[in-house]
Design goal:
Blueprint lengths: L12 E9 L14 H11 L5 E8 L23
Parallel strand pairs: 1-2
Length: 82
């Protein structure tokens, strides 16, 4: 039922929790990473097109901390935890 000129349409929200990561890096799961294709393919086959998708990547609490080494991909908020 529509009242007036506007209506709200509810879209499904999907939340994926990945982790805690032990053998891979956070940068593999974000845009441009090596695991992005896996997440995109999963969404194309199993998620509704209109769904809002939220991905929560958890890191292992044993390896979390501030690390600014050159060989590691630094992602603020993911690989640098205070």
């Amino acid at each position: 039922m529509i009242c007036g000129n506007e209506f709200m349409e509810e879209y499904p929200n999907l939340s994926y929790k990945i982790g805690p990561l032990k053998n891979s890096k956070v940068t593999a799961y974000i845009e441009g990473g090596s695991k992005e294709l896996l997440i995109t393919t999963f969404n194309n086959f199993f998620a509704p097109v209109e769904a809002d998708i939220e991905i929560d990547i958890e890191i292992d609490s044993k390896i979390s901390g501030m690390s600014f080494a050159d060989e590691e991909g630094i992602v603020l908020g993911y690989s640098s935890v205070m």
